[in-house]
Amino acid sequence: MTNTIKDVAKIANVSIATVSRILNAQGGYSEKTKFRVLKVIEELGYQPNAVARGLINKRTHTIGVLFPKLSSSLVTDLLDGIEKAANDNGSSVIVCHTESNGEKTMKYLQLLIEKRVDGIIFASEILKDEYYQFVTKAKVPMILLSTESYAYPVPFVKVNDYHAAYAAAKHLIDKGHTNIGMISGKKDDIIAGIPRIEGFKKALSDHGISLSPDNIVFSRGFNFPDGVEGLKKLIGQFPDVTAIFAASDEMAIGTLSAAYQLGIKVPEEISVIGYDNLNLAEMSIPPLTTVGQPLAKMGEAAAEMLFTIMETGETPESRIMPHKIIERMSVKERKE
Amino acid sequence: MTNTIKDVAKIANVSIATVSRILNAQGGYSEKTKFRVLKVIEELGYQPNAVARGLINKRTHTIGVLFPKLSSSLVTDLLDGIEKAANDNGSSVIVCHTESNGEKTMKYLQLLIEKRVDGIIFASEILKDEYYQFVTKAKVPMILLSTESYAYPVPFVKVNDYHAAYAAAKHLIDKGHTNIGMISGKKDDIIAGIPRIEGFKKALSDHGISLSPDNIVFSRGFNFPDGVEGLKKLIGQFPDVTAIFAASDEMAIGTLSAAYQLGIKVPEEISVIGYDNLNLAEMSIPPLTTVGQPLAKMGEAAAEMLFTIMETGETPESRIMPHKIIERMSVKERKE
């Protein structure tokens, strides 16, 4: 007959909760009690690890979130939603900053698992094989946020980048533009690079607008300096451009800044549409028209999916959230 | 004779490191070894807690950082420095987001202590009595970053807000302005409110510039909307204003945005100087002249001070870091 935690508690003359606290090193008991309980466990040949893993509730009410970059206001907006859901579920959120660095990411995954988080939200980054294997082996639930994995069956929450980029380009076309350029992110980024480029191309071709390689500038990342450089390069190779789709709001704001420095008026001479709808988009001059992602809702959904796994053990469906065009003042109707 | 961890290791026939790992529940040993070691500990009447507290190295190589708000790029810049120092010391950084909420702050302090962080950096927020008492009782080292405590002897790293605000106002005076307004933060904030207001006033009075209550607008916070509202209010009560000191870069960028909406040209009609030198300051239109704080260096210093306490047990001196005026394009010389 296998002994249970109840037997341990009974023989040691303590409550089940105390045994559980001792097994999880949570404190709140004397050393004397601890050794009495551990002695009973030993005498019964009881497997505390099995207990710790299943028979008792070992939730720490903490979830861990990994972000590649904290500067982006994308993070705050996503985190607002994560924290709302965590709060509703009585949990706290620990944030780790990976800088898209593989070694650092592994270190943080290890740390979160050592600290016994109940689950992990892995945001805005490509899920590498080693990350997946490590988390899976540790049996810690994981949700991907604002990213997805083609290789591994990890549930995710994101918008459809291809459709959202298509919508951005179509907005420029609907405003009468035909000389449309794109300042794209990384050419080979399978999450935020390729789908946005392909969506942009498809919108142009669906509307009979010809496209040459000069219409698109590729950048090293999705940041402000990429937008600054991007505009300069785009103007050089495509001087007739009247409207630009920048693949992130930070890049769009870099585009606005470079235009200002070059004496090009936005939106009078060039229209600019961004992607993300960061807080920053409202703060820019002129306020930025952009493709909005429901970031707070996405964060909330990711955390809720994590709690669903913890409570039911079942894997939830991935969620594709709706995008929408947020019209502000950086895109102007073109009348020819 | 008191037994040491060495005796335990010898009798149990394991390494000291193994005993240490068992006492700290760090894994990497079999259940069999664990019980053999715990048995020896019991037989020797050895006090593992005393061990855990002093005789062995119980560091988890994790430090916790509390920020009131993650959206601010202040955070990234501070965190860059913290992570650099942590990395140099082989430690990881856990970030918690308190939203300046007392209950949430207490919950996170508790969580960090439960997770056995080696030390805490408490950033950009007033240190309340209950926070101080809790952390002190837990005997976890703490450093204040970009804030200080008048009530408690906790080492801090920050700039001198009074002197930095004085420098900002003096920069406007040096550029020939005499109708100078201030969009201040919270009137009763003893860290970032009062010292900046008083520094501003002192600079004006030292240079024979008269000051009426209409020169200063008080805000509810230090954010973008406070700057937007602030400019509207300031223009209303002080229509002759030609130069403005905004008490944070986010407020300064709100001021630029409101000016753009009102058709007021910066710097041609109104000059604006900010405070912080966030990444954002370079991205604004026009690029923002501001009072720079060496944020990355401040973060690095705070983490290094924490490691000093851990290693030596001695309390380091607080550090006042130098500020400097970063000239960009939002302040214009006034010739009358």
Question: How would you describe what is shown here?
Answer:
The structure is a homodimer of 336-residue chains. By secondary structure, the first copy, chain A, is of the alpha/beta class. Chain A has three domains: 5-57, lambda repressor-like DNA-binding domains (434 Repressor (Amino-terminal Domain), Orthogonal Bundle); 62-159 and 295-321, Response regulator (Rossmann fold, 3-Layer(aba) Sandwich); 161-293, Response regulator (Rossmann fold, 3-Layer(aba) Sandwich), CATH 3.40.50. Chain A is 46% helix and 16% strand. The first copy, chain A, is built from 13 helices and twelve strands. Chain A has helices spanning 5-12, 16-23, 31-44, 48-55, 73-88, 102-114, 129-137, 161-174, 194-206, 224-237, 249-262, 279-283, 295-312, and strands spanning 62-67, 92-97, 119-123, 142-145, 156-159, 180-184, 216-218, 243-246, 271-276, 289-292, 319-321, 324-326. In chain A, strands 2-1-3-4-5-11 form a six-stranded parallel beta sheet, with helices on both faces. Chain A has a six-stranded mixed beta sheet with strand order 7-6-8-9-10-12, sandwiched between helices. In chain A, helix 1 (5-12) packs across helix 3 (31-44). The N and C termini of chain A lie far apart (87 Å). The interface between A and B is large, with 44 and 45 residues.
